[in-house]
Amino acid sequence: KKLRGYCWPQKRAAGLSFADLGEAIGRDEVWVAALLYGQASAPQDEALKLAEILGVSPEVAEELTHPPVKGLGPVVPTDPLIYRFYEIMQVYGMPLKDVIHEKFGDGIMSAIDFTMNVDREEDHEHGDRVKVTMSGKFLPYKRW
After folding, report:
1. Residue 110 appears among annotated catalytic residues
2. Catalytic pick from 110, 120, 121, 135?
3. Which of 12, 13, 108, 119 could serve as a FRET partner for 138 with CA atoms 20 to 30 Å apart?
């Protein structure tokens, strides 16, 4: 029974948040969500603990330990929230690239040595805001 790749009905039925699951295994909520959506792999002990919490089989836990095929694929996302991140990169991608190069030199921000956090910023005047913080190791291009 393959459950990886979507938000598990067992998680919803248990009334658990990604933060709850992250706390149970000592991981960040965004990373746990990535794991349950098939975008990360877990060590066996963490996968087994999640399987126990969610009431799924050890076979499902085993699946969580395998390296996944990552990414959404070659299509433009249609979900409005996900599309906005795509739109942000379409509009601000090159400006971000140039600013990073000005500050660090010729290289990239790692998506492997990387963390991301999502926070809520209350704004009673204009409406609450979503704060996304990304932190990735800078990797300079090698010269040889």
Report:
1. yes
2. 110
3. 119
